[in-house]
Amino acid sequence: MIEVSRLSFDPLIGLPLLLALLCLAGLAWLVYAVLAGRAWLGRAAVLVLVLTALANPTHVTEDREALPSVVALILDRSDSMEFGDRAALAQSTFDTLQRQLADRSDIELRVLDVPARAEGTQLFGALQGLMADVPRDRIAGTVLITDGQVHDVPDSLSQVADLGPVHTVLTGDPRAGDRRITVIETPNFGIVGESVVFRVRVDDPDGGRIAIGVAVNGGREEFVFAEAGMDTDIPIEVARRGDNIVVFETPPGRQELTLVNNRAAATLSGIRDGLRVLLVTGRPNSAGRVWRDLLKSDPSVDLVHFTILRPPYKQDMTPLEEMALIAFPTEELFEDKLDSFDLVIFDQYERRGVITMAYLSGVAAYVANGGALLIVAGEGFAGPASLARTPLAGVLPALPSGAVRTGPLTPRISKAGQRHTVTEGLDEASWGQWLRYIEAVADTGDVLLTTEDGAPLLAVDRVGDGRVGQLLSDQVWLWARGYDGGGPFADLIRRLVHWLMKEPELDERQLQLIARGDTLQARLRTLSERAPPLSIETPEGAFLEPLWQEDRPGVFTAEVPVDQLGLYRARAGGLETIVLNGPANPVEFSELAVSAKTLAPVAEATGGGMYTIEAAQNVPEIRMVGPRAKAYGESWLGLRDRGAYAVRQSDSLPLMPGLAGMCLIVLGLIWVWRREGR
């Protein structure tokens, strides 16, 4: 405890008014003196007494207790500190500085480890929280132990001025280089089937021309070349509706701190600019309007529908305008514009010469190249004019035996259908009956609906890059009309149509990877009874192999804990998928070189120093400096001795009590009056 005496002023009037009176009194006295007043000294004394009385001087005696100055020691434990020997050097430096500060009674040390966060290294936010309850006149300084990659430096350095001097101790080799790829510009969405442009940049200390591998949704990788340090535009075709994950990857460079930032990803939302469907009805039938109404009820479907009222070989005397008949535009539809359709439906069509074999061969090629085809079989499918006797036979999953079976039958979901997304979960207990089907033999693909005897009713298949569906009955429309209780006509056909058009949610063989912060969940759909082994590649190239658990027939899940941000890749049974854990391009890995560039302005603004530690014995010495002294040197860092204290007891004695002051002023005035009266 220290006893300190001081002179204190507690003005009886406001300080601005007191200062104004002082100026006015001084001016008046100066005029008096210039005019050769005889009592100039006496008037000056009286004015001083008046102003002193108004200032109310007091002698204060205080018992003061010295308070330690507060020092913040911050250790960066973000992901970028894990490369090379940075973490070990940082810990060694932290321990050394902590020992130096902990032994001092005039220092209150506050330490904090700042862990990795999705939004990057947040040292200043942590520092502000650590020192929030400390009076600013007690802060001696701050020491940051980091690699210099800090992402929350305030825009206005005045926010950290009272936390200084802020010293930065960089750990690691500042000469180590690293190759990295960055996505500069990403489109928000794109039309399925059209191209959008991504802008990327590869930075490499060695420069040169660098290959960039590009993969969409875990598919086949294609390569483009870019100059190091320059922005490069890369066109990408939107593969599907919904989220598309585009991955850009470069091979390892000559200098590498990590391969994590050699891979960057972006999520692109794919939207369809309408679904174009071509519906060809072979003859007027009861199902025609049902098909048309169902497809037209979907606002995203652009339907082109033709019904063949009579074949070319049939002649009668009815004028064409009375039949509302137009020439069937076969060349335009099946040669010029076939590839513009997302789905082609043949409803009870049989070969009549309207669509030639050459055009049907083109439809088969359209399917193999990625198109979608749905065959709704009528009685003619079993006869000599069947589409099964055309080039389409090569893409059909079932071929007719030549028999047409009539009589009540109730469709049943097959074993494969219970696992397939088109028919999974449909309740067959209350389905109404059909009255006819075309007997066929399943050749390829998957049979989803059967008769009670196991004969195929609905079969689907993948052909090349395309898909085919085959409905072996013309009676599905009975469900839409509610016959015998009806059935899930709309649900079944919508699922079937969207499966044919490759909606990702309806893939019957799909592998999904879902990131949930510290956990990854893999989800597999398959038509097999057993799930293939699962392998998950981490952002750093390690492999995890969690075991599957069967949730329900055809659906398997697996979970695995993870502790890294970035891109994960899963593979199982020939399927592959990717997922981003955290942001698409973690800012923590955007730049990994040890650098003073970010924190040098902070040190300059607060009077702190910058130090680079490449060996444990190079830790700077700590010194206490005065409030205005230089706070850094080549091998030492300074902390300001604030001299803060707490007053435990205080006594005060007025130096000019009211009565005494009044008497002195009156005596002074009498003396001045007498002096001037002589």
Model description:
The chain has 678 residues and is α/β, with parallel strands linked by helices. The chain is 21% helix and 35% strand. It has 12 helices and 36 strands. The strands form 9 sheets. Strands 16-15-17-18-24-23-22-20 form an 8-stranded mixed beta sheet, sandwiched between helices. Strand 31 (566-572) and strand 32 (575-581) form a beta hairpin. Helix 1 packs antiparallel against helix 2 (40-55) and helix 2 runs antiparallel to helix 12 (658-677). It is elongated and about 145 Å long. The model has no long low-confidence stretch (mean pLDDT 84).
Q: Helix tally? A: 12
Radius of gyration equals 43 Å
CATH superfamily of the largest domain: Class I glutamine amidotransferase (GATase) domain
Q: Mind summarizing the main beta sheet?
A: 8 strands, mixed
* CATH topology group of the largest domain: Rossmann fold
Report strand %.
Answer: 35-45%
Average pLDDT works out at 84
- According to DSSP, the number of beta strands is 36
Classify the helix fraction into a percent range. Answer: 10-25%
Structural class: alpha/beta
Can you tell me the number of structural domains? 5
End-to-end distance, in Å? Answer: 58 Å
Taking pLDDT < 50 over at least 5 consecutive residues as the criterion, the unreliable ranges are none
Return the CATH class of the largest domain: Alpha Beta
Shape: elongated
CATH architectural type of the largest domain: 3-Layer(aba) Sandwich
Spatial order of strands in the largest sheet:
16-15-17-18-24-23-22-20
